[in-house]
Design goal:
The complex is a heterodimer. Chain A is mostly helical. Chain A has helices at residues 3-12, 18-36, 40-45, 50-61, 71-83, 85-137, 140-190. Chain A folds into two domains: 3-61, no CATH class; 90-190. Chain B has helices spanning 3-19, 25-32, 40-52, 75-107; strands spanning 23-24, 56-63, 66-73. Chain B contains four helices and three strands, in the order αβααββα. Chain B has a single domain (3-107), classed as Winged helix-like DNA-binding domain superfamily/Winged helix DNA-binding domain (Arc Repressor Mutant, subunit A, Orthogonal Bundle). In chain B, a hairpin with a 2-residue loop joins β2 (56-63) and β3 (66-73). A three-stranded antiparallel β-sheet of chain B has the order 1-3-2. By secondary structure, chain B is an alpha+beta fold. The chains are: A mainly alpha, B alpha+beta. At the A-B interface, α2, α4 and α7 of A face α2, α3, β2 and β3 of B.
């Protein structure tokens, strides 16, 4: 069984907060495969069957099992959802747009820093090259002054690129953690 | 080991492993491998339960371009460990009693 099948089988076990366990097992398989220099399939081969894992989760953690809806209840629920769509769909769309705007605003800082960093680095590098010409074409003082300023701009550009890299890594982690938190809250609310 | 006895010891073993420093799932299993038999199937539900009881907390960090979840023992977890050690004398007392009774009965 490969990792995808194993995690899919684990998801199918009807346990609430299964997403936590699935990500835990995905991480475990990767860590063990890296540590022992073996393939994920070899790691999965010695893990318990997903059904046994689910049974142990229930025994140790006692999470609530997801309730199964009867057919009449399912049809009723579906009817209510369809009839109420004009209301909840508009609210949901607004919330999703607001969430997207929040993500865009979060990523605006590293994006702007990255653009300025690239511009400064390119312009500064070019100006440094041109300043060499200026030393011969104009004067030594002029050329050296331009060279100095160019190097400052290049340095600021490189610093901004480093800042962009660092903040992008942090923001990636924050985005993933925030998204997982939202998903857990949503799942917890609908469970 | 008796499953009920092992169940109680597993939690404290995990807390003790975290007392030495923050750790992640696979590392906890590796560190406890020679101490107590713990499987991947048992570890994570226990970690979830300890987190719910606020004896540990968790946080994620980037490792090798993926997220890795680390666990950290809290003050409540540390107190729980200390309480366990205090209770051990009582456990040892019962053990000695059982051993004495069993030894005497065998020699009769």
């Amino acid at each position: 069984m490969n990792q995808t099948d194993f995690l899919r089988a684990l998801k199918k076990q009807n346990v609430i907060n299964y997403t936590d366990y699935v990500s835990d097992y995905a991480e475990l398989i990767s860590d063990e495969a890296d540590d022992k220099a073996i393939s994920p399939e070899q790691v999965i081969a010695h893990l318990d069957d997903p059904k046994i894992i689910a049974a142990k989760i229930v025994a140790e953690d006692h999470p609530a099992m997801r309730p199964k809806l009867s057919k009449p209840m399912f049809i009723l629920l579906l009817t209510i959802i369809i009839l109420g769509a004009p209301l909840w769909a508009a609210i949901l769309a607004t919330l999703l747009i607001l969430l997207l705007v929040a993500y865009i605003l979060i990523w605006l800082l590293p994006f702007i820093a990255g653009v300025i960093g690239v511009s400064f680095t390119l312009v500064g590098s070019l100006a440094t090259l041109v300043s060499i010409v200026a030393i011969f074409k104009a004067s030594l003082a002029f050329g050296m002054t331009q060279s100095g300023f160019s190097l400052i701009i290049t340095g600021i550009g490189i610093l901004l690129l480093a800042l962009t890299w660092h903040t992008a890594k942090r923001f990636s982690l924050t985005s993933v953690v925030f998204t997982k938190w939202l998903y857990r809250k949503f799942k917890g609310g609908t469970a | 080991m008796n499953p009920q006895l092992k169940k109680g010891l597993l939690e404290y073993s995990i807390l003790a492993a975290l007392k030495t420093g923050d750790s992640y799932g696979y590392e906890i299993i590796k560190n406890l491998d020679t101490i107590i038999d713990i499987s991947e199937s048992t570890l994570y539900p226990i970690l979830k339960r300890l987190e719910r009881q606020e004896k540990i907390t968790s946080y994620s960090e980037i490792y090798n371009n993926r997220l890795r979840k680390y666990y950290h023992i809290t003050a409540i977890g540390e107190t729980d460990l200390t309480d366990f050690l205090k209770q051990w004398q009582a456990v040892e007392h019962v053990y000695n009693f059982i051993k004495e009774v069993t030894t005497n009965h065998e020699s009769d």
